[in-house]
Each structure stands twice: as structure tokens, then as C-alpha cells.
Known about the structure:
With 447 residues, the protein is mainly alpha-helical. The chain has helices at 4-10, 14-19, 21-40, 50-60, 64-71, 75-78, 87-102, 104-110, 114-144, 159-186, 191-216, 222-244, 280-299, 305-313, 319-340, 343-352, 364-399, 407-446, and strands at 147-148, 151-152, 246-252, 255-258, 261-264, 267-273.
Amino acid sequence: MASAAEQLAANINFSAFAKATELKQRLWFTLGALIVYRLGTYIPLPGIDPGIMAEIFRQQGSGILGMFDMFAGGALGRMTIFALNIMPYISASIVMRLLISMSPTLEAMNKEGEAGRKKINQYTRLGTVLLASVQGYGLAVGLEGMQGTAGSAVMDPGYFFRLTTALTLVSGTVFLMWLGEQITARGVGNGISLIIMSGIVANLPGALVQMLELGRTGAVSTFLIILLLVMSVAVITGIVFFERAQRRIVVQYPKRQVGNKMFGGDSSHLPLKLNSAGVIPPIFASSLLLMPLTITGFSGGDAPEWLQAVNTYLGHGRPLYMLFYVLLIVFFAFFYTAVVFNPVETADNLKKHGGFVPGIRPGKNTAEYLDYVLTRLTVVGGLYLAIICLLPEILISQYSLPFYFGGTSLLIVVSVTMDTVAQVHSHLLAHQYEGLIKKAKLRGRRG
């Protein structure tokens, strides 16, 4: 028998959306904020020759720069004020999660409630500024060393250029961090994720045109293009299926007697996602493996022999690259899952509230059981991520197809879309419940 919530969800239609004024305002705010972000990806850094920069990026775009440019929505390739995008904030957030798991002081602060979370967020923002400053200055120095056929990419190199470039890039990252927080608070969906997804989606048409152009010139066969499109649809279907997959562990709460009445005795469930690590493992794995290729490209023919040898064996699409890619994805899946989910803390919380898993003793035994279940789920989840990212990677590396058809980009787009649609659905449900409550009150007054 369907629950009341499920029946109400089934009755949601376009008319319900039309009446949800607050939801429409949130959607318009989200759309406006993303338009502002996309406009910023076309404002170039001062002192950069765009023609030479485009030529250099065409040569270096197969390395880590190409992947970061995908996350930056093309801002890195155009070398705009949003070239660093929101990646420093994501890196700072991951580092802060690691520090919370290792530092008892930060862990206690995180458990203080809203006040503790505000302090953690403030530390994350400071870490973002620090990382963006280091990356911005490093990018400015790297730009001065870039040479095209017509000369240097920087018109007037020097300390003034480095300082202004670093300040501009840091300001762009801080603005995007603020914009993402505003979308989360006043819009719909996770603002940071939507910023990354909008950059990928905005460049998908260009990537599709590029792929079709390869087919027109004969560089890629028509059969291969059709195969890639079919594989992309299959990958999207697989992502939807596995991202929704979860193991529901039954949690029972004991009955308690208050006076002559018996309360409690309810049962609930603890959902454990198949892929708790999200998109972090393929991002980290790709970054590490593409680093030698990028360093070699920047150094030109002056790269050390050992680095050239590493680049030869770990070249994009080589068997050793694919092997390490799978191993690193599985490793980071376990690593990041251990960071975001603590079985001991979850078991203690269940014990404090009187909950228990049927057949398992509360406390240590429950923590061991949760760790056992989560380990088995992560094995499957890590293999799922590896397969999703590996299949398109083979075609991309062999035929120089755009990064945008890779498993990582599709995983981000599908995951963020699912999360945003779920939030829209929640707002519609809340609006429907408010309408029912108002009708019930009016009937009560009339009665």
C-alpha cells in the first residue's frame, strides 16, 4: 500500500509547479546566478595574448589542463578571471574533511552544532584563499614561460603581472565561492556542484561539433561516433541506476511505557549508498596520472629523461595508465568513503537514541557490522566508478575525442541533475503539504 507521501508525490503536476511561487523565485535566482558565472568565463585576464594562448592550449589540452578546463567551463583555455574556477574551494573542503577526521579539536568543533559548522566553514574559506593564492601565482609564473610560434603568451612579464594575475584569479575564485553559497541558500540545488555542471553542459555542444568535425574529415569513423553516443547513453543509464542504489539497514527502537501508555517500538532504516565517495575518486585519479604529461608539455624538450620515460609508460590511453587509473579510483573510493562516513560514530549515535540493528549488539558490534557492510558496498561502488570512467576513456585516448564525453564529466552532470531534481520535488511536496494544511484549517473554522 502506498504511503501518503508517495500518493501526494504522484499527484504533483504542472499546475502545482505554477502555484509554487517561492520555488519559481528560487529557480530564477539560480538561473540568473549561473548566467553571471558564464559571462565571467569570457572576461580575459589582463596582459594575455589570446591568440598565442589559444595556440598553446591546443598543444597542451590533452593533459591535466584539458581536464581542469572541462571543470572550469572553458575559462582556463580562454585564461579568464575564472580560470581557477571553484576547484580551490573543493580542494580546501576535502582537506578540511581530512583534518576533521584526524584532529579531535576540529571533530569536537564540528559536533558543536551551527556555531561549530560556521567556524569550520570560515576555516574552509581561509583555506580556499590560501590555495587560490598559491595556484594563482604559480599559474602566473607558468604563463610567463609559455611560448607560441608568435612569441610569449604574456605581453609584459614581471612581478607586476604576477601580482595582478594572482589577485584577479583569487578574487574570481572567492566570488564563485560566494556565488555558490548564495545559490545553495537562496536557489535550488548545491551551488558549487551546479557551477561545475553548468560549465560542462555549456561546452557539450562545442565538444559534439568537434567530434562531428573529426568524423567529417575522416579522422574518426561514423561507426565510432555512433558507438560513442550509444555508450554515452548506456553510461548515463548506469550512473542513474548505481547512484540511486543503496543498502537499507533496519534500525529498531525499543518500546517505552509512560504512565499507562506505551510509546515507541518503531522501526526505521539507515541508508548506505553504493557510491558514498561520489565523483571525487575519478577526479583525483585523473589529476595524478595526467600530471607527468602536463609537466613534460610545459618543459618542452628540457624535461628530464626519467620524466619522459614515465610519460611514455603512463601516457594517456596506455595499458599501464589504464591499470593505475582503475587502481587509483578504487583506492580513493575507499579512502574518501572512510573520511565521510564513520561507523563508530554512527553506532554511538544509534546507541544514544536507543536504536539497534536487529540481531546485532549495540556499540562495538554494530560499528563492526556497519563497517563490514560499507566495505562490501564500496568494493562494488569502486568497480562501478572504474568501469564507468574506463570505457569512454579508451575511445577518448585512442581517437583524441573531447574530455566532455568521458565518464567523469557524465558522472558529474547526471549526479548533480538528480540531486537538483530531487530538491525541486521536495519543494513541490512541501508546497502541496502547506496547501493541505491551510484547507484543513479553513474546514475546521467553518465546522
